[in-house]
Amino acid sequence: MISVESLKVEFGVKPLFHDVSFVINDRDRIALVGKNGAGKSTLLKILCGMQNPTSGHVAIPGDTTIGYLPQVMVIQDDTTVRDEARKAFAKSMKMKERIDRMERELGERTDYESEEYNALVERFTQEHDRYMMMGGSNYEAEMERTLTGLGFIRSDLDRPTAEFSGGWRMRIELAKILLQHPDVLLLDEPTNHLDIDSIQWLEQFLATTSSAVVLVSHDRAFINNVTNRTLEITCGQVVDYKVKYDQYVVLRQERREQQLRAYENQQKEIADIKDFIERFRYKPTKAVQVQSRIKQLAKIVPIEVDEVDRSAMRLKFPPCLRSGDFPIICDEVRKDYDHTVFDHVTFTIRRGEKVAFVGKNGEGKSTLVKCIMGEIPFEGTLKIGHQVQIGYFAQNQAQLLDGEKTVYDTIDYVAKGDVRLRINDILGAFMFGGENSEKKVKVLSGGERSRLAIIRLLLEPVNLLILDEPTNHLDMQSKDVLKEAIKAFDGTAIIVSHDREFLDGLVTKVYEFGGGKVREHLGGIYDFLQSRKIESLSQLGCSSPVKQTEEPPQEEPVSQNKQNYADRRELQKRIRKAEKEVKVSEAKIEEMEARLGELDQILCTPEGASDMKLVTEYTTTKKALDNEIARWEQLSEVLEDLQSNF
After folding, report:
1. pTM: predicted TM-score of the whole model, two decimal places
2. Which pLDDT belongs to residue 134?
3. I need a labelling partner for 401 at 20 to 30 A (CA). Which of 5, 331, 491, 543 fits?
4. Helix, strand or coil for residue 64?
């Protein structure tokens, strides 16, 4: 569908990438990955024609349509949500106008036998059939389904877009792109402004769309559920892995280990050549060999090793006073604006717990955080425990940084002890390596300021950590660093996030915001998602949803659901292990069969038939092959049994 050949992009002395070639096929689901600054967004802009490469060629068939969602875009504020989304159907609406004109003309004309009339009938029929194939007048229903899937409610559709935040307006732009059903979807961080429900809806949409998809995202679970191919930009090249992201991570590690071995061997070879040149440079009898080594050295192409993954780096919060046993106690908390955001909120968070606040945007997660911080008034009782010291991250925290300080000085100001010796490593882990550490805060983008505010928070002594959407501007390596720091944190943590992969293995309790209520779910984020699906099915036959909040009937189903989900995950691991063993066995069989074929040909010759070593090898290999085939049959039976139980 789209062919990229010998692409090169230069902004400075060193090319961003060069000699890049790949093909995007129909129904490809591609994850475009690489460290920040590698050129992911630039490549998307080149694919959609918004930017020209320094050299190379992008071949796109003339009838191919492309939908592109950038990270930042200019959004119109002069229409309603419905009217703005309706712009996606401009082509269909123009076609409808042409069909209506032809229909009126057919009704007015009486020259039924003329060639012109018959030609008009033919055009009308073709246009009408094409219009119906495109969905006809059903676009209003499709538009509402898409907007609802992305989190809007029906009453929102007739509100002016100016009343919505930037994140919600980005959802409108995403809806417009999806409604156009382009042949190729280019999406740059589409989940940044979506909640968990909207992300799951988008996953299902992308999994069933007929469009090819090229996706840039730092949401590991999202790209793993959507994509089947991974393009990595590294060392100025694009490496094509025809696997999902999780499998790509394994293959990339193997590739890097091979690169390191090859690099070490090359460095040894270079050292040996240089040593020879230095030892014999001034000996006339070795002049020819020395010149030969010099030419050999000049021809060596240096082996590049992929960038070091900094996710293994560990940060730890500095020690702090021990808080009381109950850092947060909420009792009948209520908050109203022009409507009730939530009421009857009652829960207790114990010292050391890591909990998640989840739910659709606008359901009150950030509002309750502001109540805890004492930033807004509320009704009810909300107690902060003894000796609680709060570290708070919200989007506006980034705006409070001193704009005249450099990135390095901002962190150096709060760093204490041995941490000061590792500031450059810490900054590098959060994409502020090299010259970026000398930038002044005032020239940083909003995302860069957010990352800097997170680093600063990591170095402050606190015992209650509250993070409101901390991962929106972090790449996967930075998220891993932050996640490991929170896991090792001795204190209590409240995390408002839609990033399932980030929350997985981090939180042990989930508070769900919705319908003016806050419901407590024990277990991790995937336990919560699994149990919620089961609850929603059981509610279909219930007349009173209040029963869900009663304690006795809820305990057993949730516990059972958690156990079922854990068993299912364990079974998946066993299946993957069995599949790997079967593949290894098949590879051994294939290798031995190939060797036996070679030996057969050799032993057919007079010389080979008399070679006892070859005869012995043939007998040994044949026996090993029979044993391996028997082993493969056993492994295959085990795999089939596991798959039948899944």
Report:
1. 0.56
2. 63
3. 491
4. coil
